[in-house]
């Protein structure tokens, strides 16, 4: 078996090789930088790369200066997350060249764990729908998905083994599915959001892109012992949203479900209850109202530098009063309570991650399969499970119980094995 | 009856006077600035006052340039909230002179509503326990409470009619009680936290200091119609924490309860269930762990400029793993579910707001009466209800149902009437 180039190693394989001395952090960082040099003119995943600093820090790590579960590992972060030593523009011309005073908590934590921030990755405008420059690594005529476009593409293309992204609707799940990588959106609030430029604070969730489920778990939980799941109970969760999915998406999802069953999972099919079907529209309203508030300063002082579609979106819920918003929040909590019943007979739900393969053009695709689960604050993970007619990745989404992220990750690791088995 | 000086008017009285033309915004702003000139060398409520801009904006408002429910009204904001045109130091020497790129969402919203940011108010170091410069307006040898020290003192002392504060444990409720003003901490998440320098994102809640309950409601909900409550059901909520309260605090609280009863409320006494007694310690742990993460950048690069007590506090939960933290979050959600039963027979709970009168010295007093309710995400309001042996204010805390802030505010308005009746 051919050993992959260092820049295509999983994070855990790379960390193990660094630990054993068979790979230096510097060699890994240089392999990633070479890949970026070679490819990023096409893919455009990065807004900023700090080669010199990354190499210097890698050398320090190789001399034993760094310690921690990410020792010597390069990572990237979506440019919606503050970094003190790299400009942070939030995908908006308003913030071109902006230098935050501090690192976002998740970046500081990854650095504290020994990781090296290789660069910042492209984000849609303020993590909404307006596309950024990034192209799909396997077909530059297509979108990588959004809004965590650069993070998904960078991990998929061998530029960096781990990258932070954020999700307010489907901004981790969708690009992960399009790009064929693991995208893990934790339970709401698990990763500290300090230093995140918020779109919708009640929904915004930081997560990670990785090449394996174990890598994603390691990035968030460190060297936590993996739980051995019992016989996994999987509910294929049908909903009205399935109607929008391409036939191959559903076929691949159901074929994947059967593979899980052959692997030992107990499978059933449930239908999303009406109360949760109705919650889809509530997520859109809550998200638009909070976005309007979060960008109140930019609306007032820089309206002409918001994209036309964002100018429109921040007005979508201009008529909602604070009393109406408070009611919307109560509806969100009611939906979260109702969602618990989905897991009476299931450990995880299986759901589409995107309509199909990445679309041709710059539009980042519909976020429809993510919004509800983000609204419910549930942990979710997108796993590559097949290929579509154009030969591009198709993903499946696994959704777990609120707060039981390690159980979702264990289920996803099992599912990953099943996906690879055929 | 003597009309109060403009700077001592309630926000709603001032807004009405401006609307009617009997008071100009400029006259109001100048009265506030005169009061600050006269008093702030002693009280030290403000870190920054922008007199010229405030007067210029007041004149614009008087010429009809501003519109909205806060038209022409000066307000202040705790210096833990970003402001683009005034330095924002978060109560830390690390950020002396720091200029954020944007206003916090709540400041931008208040400005959009026609309000004028008069200045920034003192905060304890990163909204924790390390005292700032502010003194109690009625006795400069005493603390005004913290961490929203400056906002509470400024409203109490006639410097500004409304001020934003934040609460992670009791940083609104306690200083409001000490200073004898209304302090309203909404349900978690009601006021958008974009542009807040986080201590503990799962707890941090923005709220307001005001001179009346109606002012607090207006600041958050705008001209929402006040709900007429039916016969209010009040549960005096006893707990082990009562043991720390001064005798006069309990006496005043119980006398206030009897006044509510005479006013028509139905009164009962409940005891905090064991599960919620236990949650007090969980709040402290969660808060310390998240603080450690939120200040990861400052810990790494500016440790020696954190106060000794903050250096200690950020290490308190250094040993907690992410898996342990996830469990702590699940315990928080379980406590939140359990708390719902407190309201089976009650609309609001009555609870101490502080041990007693403001303490002599700079220490900001125990946050013990706030932490649990902040952890439970419940809306809470501190109301001045009496005086202690030194003649200083004593407060009582009203706690409402999650998400039913307007009902809490209606109950508090009723209670305010009862408090004033005797």
In CATH, the architecture of the largest domain in chain A is Alpha-Beta Complex
N-to-C series of helices and strands of chain A: HHEHEHEHEHEEHEHEHHHHEHEEH
Number of strands of chain A: 11
Number of domains of chain A: 2
**Any idea of the CATH topology of the largest domain in chain A?**
Amidase signature (AS) enzymes
Helix content of chain A: 25-40%
Tell me the name of the CATH class of the largest domain in chain A: Alpha Beta
- Uncertain segments of chain A are none
* CA gyration radius of chain A, whole angstroms: 20 Å
Strand order of the largest sheet of chain A: 1-3-2-4-6-5-10-11-9-7-8
Q: Indicate the proportion of strand residues of chain A.
A: 5-15%
Per DSSP, the total helix count of chain A is: 14
Tell me the name of the CATH homologous superfamily of the largest domain in chain A.
Amidase signature (AS) domain
**Quaternary arrangement of the chains shown?**
homodimer
Overview of the structural elements:
Chain A is α/β, with parallel strands linked by helices. Chain A has two domains: 8-221, Alpha-Beta Complex (Amidase signature (AS) enzymes); 233-421, Amidase signature (AS) domain (Amidase signature (AS) enzymes), CATH 3.90.1300.10. Helix content of chain A is 39%, strand content 15%. Chain A is built from 14 helices and eleven strands. Chain A has helices spanning 11-20, 25-43, 51-62, 105-112, 149-156, 173-179, 213-221, 247-262, 274-294, 296-301, 308-313, 322-339, 368-375, 405-421, and strands at 46-49, 74-78, 116-121, 163-167, 182-185, 205-210, 233-238, 266-271, 348-352, 380-387, 393-399. An eleven-stranded mixed beta sheet of chain A has the order 1-3-2-4-6-5-10-11-9-7-8, sandwiched between helices. In chain A, strand 7, helix 8 and strand 8 form a beta-alpha-beta unit. In chain A, helix 7 packs antiparallel against helix 14 (405-421) and helix 9 packs across helix 13. Chain A is globular and about 60 Å long. The model of chain A has no long low-confidence stretch (mean pLDDT 96). The interface between A and B is large, with 48 and 48 residues. Chains A, B: InterPro entries: Amidase, Amidase_dom, AS_sf. Chains A, B: This is Asp-tRNA(Asn)/Glu-tRNA(Gln) amidotransferase A subunit family amidase.
């Amino acid at each position: 078996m051919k050993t992959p180039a260092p820049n295509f190693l999983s994070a855990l394989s790379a960390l193990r090789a660094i630990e054993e001395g068979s790979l230096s952090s510097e060699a890994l960082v240089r392999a990633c930088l070479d890949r970026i040099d070679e490819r990023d003119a096409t893919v455009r995943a990065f807004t900023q790369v700090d080669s010199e600093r990354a190499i210097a820090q890698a050398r320090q790590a190789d001399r034993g200066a760094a310690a921690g579960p990410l020792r010597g590992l390069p990572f990237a972060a979506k440019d919606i997350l503050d970094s003190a030593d790299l400009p942070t523009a939030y995908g908006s011309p308003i913030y071109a060249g902006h230098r935050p005073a501090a690192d976002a908590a998740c970046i500081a934590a990854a650095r504290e764990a020994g990781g090296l921030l290789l660069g910042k990755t492209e984000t849609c405008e303020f993590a909404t729908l307006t596309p950024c420059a990034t192209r799909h690594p396997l077909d530059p005529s297509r979108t990588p998905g959004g809004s965590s476009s650069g993070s998904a593409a960078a991990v998929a293309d061998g530029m960096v083994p781990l990258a932070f992204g954020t999700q307010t609707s489907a901004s981790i799940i969708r690009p992960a599915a399009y790009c064929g990588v693991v995208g893990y959106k934790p339970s709401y609030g698990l990763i500290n959001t300090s230093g995140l430029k918020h779109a919708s604070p009640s929904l915004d969730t930081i997560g990670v892109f990785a090449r394996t489920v174990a890598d994603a778990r390691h990035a968030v939980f460190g060297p936590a012992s993996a739980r051995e799941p019992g016989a996994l109970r999987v509910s294929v969760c049908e909903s009205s949203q399935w109607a929008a999915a391409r036939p191959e998406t559903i076929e691949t999802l159901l074929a994947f479900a059967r593979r899980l069953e052959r692997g030992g999972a107990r499978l059933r099919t449930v239908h999303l209850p009406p109360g949760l079907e109705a919650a889809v529209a509530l997520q859109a309203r809550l998200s638009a109202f909070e976005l309007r508030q979060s960008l109140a300063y930019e609306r007032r002082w820089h309206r002409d530098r918001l994209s036309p579609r964002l100018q429109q979106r921040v007005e979508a819920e201009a008529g909602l009063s604070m009393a109406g918003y408070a009611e919307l929040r109560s509806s969100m909590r009611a939906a979260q309570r109702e969602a618990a019943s989905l897991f009476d007979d299931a450990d995880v739900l299986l759901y589409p991650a995107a309509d199909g393969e990445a679309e041709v053009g710059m539009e980042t695709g519909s976020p429809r399969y993510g919004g509800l689960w983000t609204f419910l604050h549930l942990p979710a993970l997108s796993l590559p499970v097949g290929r579509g007619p154009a030969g591009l990745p198709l993903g499946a989404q696994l959704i777990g119980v609120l707060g039981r992220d390690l159980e979702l990750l264990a289920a996803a690791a099992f599912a990953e094995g099943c996906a690879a088995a055929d």
